[in-house]
Design the sequence.
C-alpha cells in the first residue's frame, strides 16, 4: 500500500470526485483513477462508488477514510521530524483574502518559497470564506473579527480600520457622530455584518443597513469615494483617499475596534510545520511593516 494512494483516496473522498481531487493534487485524472484502483485491489474492497456526478464513499470507504487521513498525517509528521533543520517539502495550499492579499501577503508567500525551494505553494485569493476541509486547503489567512468555528486560529497581527465618507456624501446627508446616528445612514457593507466601535473601554456593536454591498474591499472603497454611503474600511486600502481628501473620517469619538489577521487551519493535534512557519513569517511581517498594522 502506497502513501500516495492513501493521500489520493483522502483527496477524492473530501473533494467528492476524481476531477476535483486531480486539480487539488496537480496530477492528471488518469493518475488519480489508477491510484484508486490499485488501493481498492490491494484492500480487496470497494471504497468509492463512481457516478457521472462524482464519487461517493461506500460504507467501507467512509470507515477507511479517517484511518487513511491519520496515516497520511503521521507520515507527514515523521517526515518533518527527520528532515534537515528548517527544510520544508511538499505542497502548501493557502486561501488568502483578495482585498490587499496580493499586495501585502503575497510578498510573504514569495519569501517563504524563496527560503524553501523544495516547497510548493498554491494560493487562492478570494474574499469568500472558503471551507478549508471540503476544498482541501492546509490553512487560510483571514482578516477581520474571527467567527466562532472549529478551526484552529493563530493571531499574527492587528489590522486597523476607520469609518469614512466622501465630502459629497457628508454635504448631502451629514456625518454620523455616534453609533446610533449611523443607523440612519447608508452603510457600505459586505453583507449583514456588525460593525464594532470603541467607547472608552467598552465595545459597541452596531448592525447598520445599506443598499450597496460587495464582497471585496476595493469595491466598497470605490463606492465610498463615489458618495454612496459610509464605509467601515481598513486603513491600508483607504490611505491615499484620506491623504487626498476624497474620504473623510467620521465618528472619530468612536474609533473602530481593531480587527486582526489570523492563520487558521483545520482542527488536528499536530499543526504542519509549513503552516507554523507561514504564521511566523506573517508575524515577522506585521512587526516590521507598520503600513498594514498602524494608522496612517
Sequence:
Amino acid at each position: 500500500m502506497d502513501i500516495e494512494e492513501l493521500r489520493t483516496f483522502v483527496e477524492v473522498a473530501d473533494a467528492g470526485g476524481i476531477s476535483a481531487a486531480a486539480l487539488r493534487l496537480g496530477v492528471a485524472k488518469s493518475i488519480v483513477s489508477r491510484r484508486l484502483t490499485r488501493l481498492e485491489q490491494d484492500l480487496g474492497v470497494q471504497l468509492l462508488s463512481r457516478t457521472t456526478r462524482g464519487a461517493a464513499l461506500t460504507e467501507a470507504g467512509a470507515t477507511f477514510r479517517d484511518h487513511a487521513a491519520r496515516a497520511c498525517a503521521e507520515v507527514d509528521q515523521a517526515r518533518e521530524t527527520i528532515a534537515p533543520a528548517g527544510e520544508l517539502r511538499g505542497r502548501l495550499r493557502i486561501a488568502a483574502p483578495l482585498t490587499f492579499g496580493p499586495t501585502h501577503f503575497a510578498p510573504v508567500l514569495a519569501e517563504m518559497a524563496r527560503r524553501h525551494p523544495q516547497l510548493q505553494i498554491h494560493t487562492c485569493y478570494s474574499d469568500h470564506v472558503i471551507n478549508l476541509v471540503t476544498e482541501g486547503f492546509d490553512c487560510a489567512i483571514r482578516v477581520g473579527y474571527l467567527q466562532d468555528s472549529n478551526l484552529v486560529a493563530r493571531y499574527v497581527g492587528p489590522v486597523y480600520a476607520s469609518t469614512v465618507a466622501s465630502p459629497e456624501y457628508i454635504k448631502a446627508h451629514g456625518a454620523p457622530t455616534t453609533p446610533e446616528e449611523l443607523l440612519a445612514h447608508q452603510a457600505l457593507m459586505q453583507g449583514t455584518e456588525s460593525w464594532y466601535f470603541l467607547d472608552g473601554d467598552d465595545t459597541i456593536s452596531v448592525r447598520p443597513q445599506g443598499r450597496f454591498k460587495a464582497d471585496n474591499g476595493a469595491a466598497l472603497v470605490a463606492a465610498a469615494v463615489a458618495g454612496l454611503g459610509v464605509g467601515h474600511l481598513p486603513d491600508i486600502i483607504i490611505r491615499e483617499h484620506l491623504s487626498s481628501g476624497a474620504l473623510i473620517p467620521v465618528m472619530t469619538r468612536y474609533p473602530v475596534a481593531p480587527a486582526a489577521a489570523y492563520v487558521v487551519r483545520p482542527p488536528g493535534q499536530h499543526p504542519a510545520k509549513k503552516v507554523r512557519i507561514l504564521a511566523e513569517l506573517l508575524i515577522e511581517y506585521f512587526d516590521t511593516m507598520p503600513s498594514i498594522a498602524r494608522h496612517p
